[in-house]
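Dear H.,

Thanks for agreeing to be a second pair of eyes. The structure we're designing against is below in C-alpha cell form, covering all 195 positions.
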C-alpha cells in the first residue's frame, strides 16, 4: 500500500514528509529494513497518529524513504550522444552508489534475509532501469551502437562496478576510474566507423 496523496504540497505536510523519509533513510543506513510506523514515529518526532494515517505499513514507509533517496539523482541524461550520455550517467551513478544509505541498502539486499524489502526496492528501481534502457535504445536509434547490443547487458555492465566497488571495497571510485569505466562501456558498444 502506498502512502496516501497529500492534499497540498509544501508547508507543514512537506516538512512532515521529509522528516518521515529521513527517519526511514536513517534506519536503512544503520542496516535496519524491518521497521514500521512506531520506529519511524520515534525517530522523526512525528506523531504515530499521523504516521499511521499516511504511512500505515512498512511498504509505505520504505516507498517514502526510497523516493526521497533516489529523487532525480539517477534520471537519465540526454546529451545528444552515446558517449556523453554514458559519461554523465556513470558520474551520477558513481556518486549515488557510494552514498552511505545506498551502500547500506545494498548490504541489506545482499544478505537476502528480507524478501519483502528486496521486492519493494526492486519495484522502486524498475522505472529507473527502464529509463536507463531507453538511453541505450535512443543511441541505437541514432545509429551509434552495434545493432545486436542488448540493452540489459549494457545497463548491467555500466552499473555493476559502480555499485560493487563501494559495497565490497568500501571506497568511492575516483573521477579517473569512473571515466575509464565509462570509456570501456562506450568502446564495447559503439559502432566503429571504418575509414
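And this is the sequence the design step returned. I haven't edited it by hand at all.
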Amino acid at each position: 500500500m502506498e502512502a496516501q496523496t497529500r492534499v497540498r504540497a509544501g508547508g507543514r505536510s512537506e516538512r512532515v514528509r521529509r522528516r518521515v523519509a529521513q527517519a526511514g533513510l536513517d534506519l536503512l543506513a544503520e542496516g535496519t529494513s524491518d521497521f514500521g510506523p512506531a520506529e519511524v514515529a520515534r525517530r522523526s518526532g512525528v506523531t504515530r497518529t499521523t504516521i499511521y494515517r499516511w504511512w500505515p505499513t512498512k511498504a509505505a514507509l520504505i516507498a517514502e524513504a526510497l523516493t526521497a533517496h533516489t529523487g532525480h539523482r539517477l534520471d537519465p541524461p540526454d546529451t545528444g550522444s552515446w558517449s556523453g550520455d554514458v559519461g554523465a550517467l556513470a558520474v551520477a551513478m558513481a556518486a549515488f552508489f557510494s552514498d552511505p544509505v545506498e551502500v547500506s541498502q545494498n548490504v541489506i539486499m545482499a544478505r537476502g534475509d528480507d524478501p519483502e524489502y528486496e521486492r519493494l526496492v526492486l519495484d522502486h528501481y524498475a522505472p529507473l532501469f527502464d529509463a536507463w534502457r531507453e538511453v541505450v535504445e535512443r543511441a541505437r536509434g541514432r545509429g551509434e551502437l552495434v545493432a545486436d547490443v542488448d540493452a540489459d547487458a549494457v545497463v548491467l555492465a555500466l552499473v555493476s562496478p559502480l555499485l560493487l566497488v563501494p559495497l565490497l571495497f568500501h571506497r568511492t571510485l575516483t573521477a579517473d576510474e569512473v571515466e575509464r569505466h565509462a570509456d570501456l562501456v562506450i568502446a564495447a558498444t559503439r559502432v566503429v566507423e571504418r575509414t
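Two observations from my side: The CA atoms of residues 31 and 108 lie 6 Å apart. The mean pLDDT is 92.

Warmly,
E.
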